[in-house]
Amino acid sequence: MSRARSTYDVDPGRGWILFAGTMLSLVGCLNAIYGIAAIANSSFFVGQMRYVFGDLNTWGWVLTVIGFAQIAISFGIFMTAEWARWAGIIVAALNMIVQFVAISSHPLISVLAFFVDVIVIWGLLTYGGKDRYSLAG
Question: What is the pTM for the complete model shown?
Answer without folding.
Answer: 0.79
